[in-house]
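DATA SHEET
Item: assembly model
Revision: 1
Owner: S.N.
Input lines:
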Amino acid sequence: MLKKNLLFAGKNLIRMFLLLFAVSIATFALVAVSPIDPLQANVGQAALGSMSEEQKEKLRSYWGADTPPVERYVNWAKAALRGDFGTSLLYRQPVMNVIGVKLANSLFLMGLAWVISGLLGFVLGVIAGVYKGRWPDRLIKGYSLVIASTPAFWLALLLLLFFGVWLKVLPIGLSVPIGVEAAGVTFFQRVRHAILPALTLSITGISNITLHTREKMIEIMDSDYVLFARARGEKTGKIIFHHGLRNVLLPAMTLQFASISEIIGGSVLVEQVFSYPGLGQAAVAAGTGSDVPLLMGITLITAAMVFLGNFAANLLYGAVDPRIRRGGGKV
Amino acid sequence: MRQRKWMALLCAGMMAVSTLGMTVTAAAEDGEKTAEEQKREVVVTMPPSSEPASGFDPAYGWGAGEHVHEPLIQSTLVRTNTELEIENDLAAEYGCSEDGLTWTVKIRDDVVFTDGEPLTAQDVAFTYNNCRDNSSVNDFTMLKEAVAVDETTVEFHMNEPYSIWPYTMAIVGIVPEHAYDETYGLNPIGSGRYIMKQWDRGQQVIFEANPDYYGEAPKIQKLTVLFMEEDAALAAALSGTADVAHTAAAYSDMAVDGYSLMQVETVDNRGFNLPATEAVADEENGVVYGNDLTADVRVRRAINLAIDREEMINNVLNGYGTIAYSVCDKMPWYSENAVSAYDLEAAKALMEEAGWAEGDDGIRTKDGEKAELTFLFSNGDSVRQALAEDVANQLRELGIDCSTEGVGWDTAYDRAQSEPLIWGWGAHTPMELYNIYHSAEDTGLAQYSPYANETVDGYMDQALKSSDLEESYELWKKAQWDGETGITQEGDIPWIWLCNVDHLYFVRDGLKVAEQKLHPHGHGWSIVNNVDEWEWE
């Protein structure tokens, strides 16, 4: 049994490694063919105008514009294998330090949003499914469809205006209070600053999981075994609990773990609106600024996060449904 | 049935709890501050691009680059006053040798860094040599070596004469040699008016007044700079979070309770180039150099006369701008001869003279060729786009068929070799004149738009070689117009200047922002150049 588990873990580790390798090549190739000139992207037209040709040469070699892409990739990959992800060209700090700081901010925000949208979406989906066609369903379905077509940044602006400007009960942005030294910042203040961005992400993240769960729930409520349960006189609550939840949990979980990538994507715009310094903003800066080491670092980290998310879903399947437990197929 | 109702209630309740419950917990954020304390603090917003990515290190562009400003944390050898003339700061006196190759600076002996160590000539030499070796956006290629002769004297040995060196000395903050390493940018130590207390990357920087500052003690004790987009900055003003919030002309008619709009004049100019040579395609890189229409100086003069700048500023900038006649309006090296007046009839006459006759559709032709121009602007810059549209509209009156096109910076520089592009300039150094109008050695043409005039080149070369800054101003002026030739309306006019864009801020009532020097290009740190002199009423 232990051997089997180790083999399973090993296989997945190799898979992840191959995935990261492929992602790194793809990212690098895309950067190499992108028309962005690192000098023009980072220095700005007015500064470039008061610079001598010699100085420009110096900068070109700093941004690596004079090294062939394949050579750059090989150099980067060699160092990365040793665990050295290089120094960010924009921030002039080790890539892992930069990512560490941003990730800490983002994880807090995204984790909060992920849990809230997952739980809320699931509950709403179940309710809508059970009350198919009646007003709770119509309400929830309508809400989901409206939200699904709402741009996240627009909603963010709306919330900001309502809570930050009009009611003045929540901060208009940033992850820490203005003008307060780090030592004086409490956990409560951090949470307060994460509320609006997390709320935006949760509200917009709900619809997907709600609509899918609803569909599955309807299917279950129409099934023969639910009909049989009803015939036996079971109450709706019990039916949902005994027959519904278990069956609807699997697809919901798959969706929830797959949505990690969406939350990462969605956070970019929301962070922008709330001036919240997360991974999303750093990724945009690295991409448009041709900061190759930082971009590679962020891409790999997020790819690994998505992979681990799906991997976790795989493991949880076994816990939720013994029928697909590895090696335990015969119950 | 009862159960269903219960479920529905639960659903509604959950939603309410999730949204409201989180907000109810909000309470007062900071501990209450006394009114006296608040009177000595100020919160200012800036665009996110103002945040120095590589930290507060002068070698990596702190103080210089796209946006020139005083480094606050460090002190500089000299500084610019509101007229943009040079004044002493750390320097007690300075001078340049006859051949322009050696600058000697004597510094004050009573200055200490905030860690208690004295600031010596050795630190100055170290700072400049370090910049020369590692500098990113600021150009130090003219410097051969900086040498500390004794405790208070430093000599700069130059590779070539560079009369405008004081303008470089005005932005390079002096760093302590003993406390300098790769992480200096994150924990800067200097001798300036403020100490950087904390930097929350991507969000804010907190500065506190330096109690040991050698100059006049700062009146504002604490400065917090927030980095945010314009929308967020507006929200910061609306919610009363910031004392000074940057904004754009588009928001200028918003009424914000308790705030008033402050406009600051700038040299943040916009203009476009007119390629001054006949079109030739470069076989090697496929770039076209020159434009057959604008190669005729009469056409360029006609275009300059046909632009109503007043109307343009009202239309595009809501009136928040000033007319620009050159790239360096109101600077000490600006030549008054650049002024020209709007005169559409004279412009039309010039076009006739150049052989471009008006057709039935109002568009001029010559030898069967239509007069056409495409005005380029950088994608995503709404002001430049609007300016391009406005120019195109105005020049249609002249009989030129104009169109506009948005381009990215990756292709803009090449396209501008043959077509007019809307540019933005405005640094506090005459080097900009040089880079725009002086011809390059390899091509014999100016680098951004084909143009060459030996006399103009000559004056600028002379100006750089001059050992006296005042004298060099005269030469820079002559390069613009010497009575016979130059780059103005009567001269070759290879660039047309439109307007200087005012920088706009919402300022909380009661805060007195000290008089600003002309802001350079960019909406960033310049506003806090003199934050130490601001006052609350």
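QC remark: The CA atoms of residues 51 and 182 of chain B lie 18 Å apart.
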